What we know:
By secondary structure, the protein is of the alpha+beta class. 31% of the residues lie in helices and 29% in strands. The strands form 2 sheets. Strands 1, 2, 4, 6, 7, 8, 9 and 10 form an 8-stranded antiparallel sheet that branches. A hairpin with a 3-residue loop joins strand 7 (139-145) and strand 8 (149-156). The longest helix is centred in the first third of the chain and has 23 residues, at 2-24.
Amino acid sequence: MHLFILIILIVSIYLYIVYLNRSNKPTGDRSVTELFSIEPGSLDVVTIDKVFITDPQAEYIYHAEIDTNAVNRDGIGELYKARYFALVSVSFEDDFREVALHSLEYNQENEFYAADESVLASFYPLSPSALIEQAPSSGPWLLYVDDDWFIELHINLDVNNVYFIYTEINGQRCTSITVWAEGDFLTIGDMHSKLNQLIRKYEDMPYHRFTGAVRV
């Protein structure tokens, strides 16, 4: 009987300690870890498997960052855990370029329907989850388009995430700058600001052709 009471007491103390540890942990952690970053003219690109756990598609990475809680012990970002990530990559795959070129031509033909800047600005205070609650439908929103690049905002109602993507075509190279988030990790305004920061740094990069990346 005394042993049973002692066991109950020990278990109760353990559960109380666990509760205290959990309650003392910071909530809403919004820290970001930069996994990799090089200058636009550098040749020291890496393949995507060096920064993220994902199926490689022959991308070469210039910049990668992710919310810190999604970084594993090996310093690799686990996208299935991510609430936020930003990625700057280039690809020389023919089909990637064809898809990007088709989207560019389509957006140029439909430039008239590009979202007004005031509409985009009205999204700035919202989190991705709040924007998804208000969005009437999924699909990309064209924001800007030019001779060889365009910017879209994708609101994915079915999987509850939002991302900005800048796509630039230069010869055989397709450059992508993506800022992705879900939940309330940051606001749409923060995402757009990050996108613009990366565009200013990585647009019109010197042309270098890379080979050897694996594609699944």
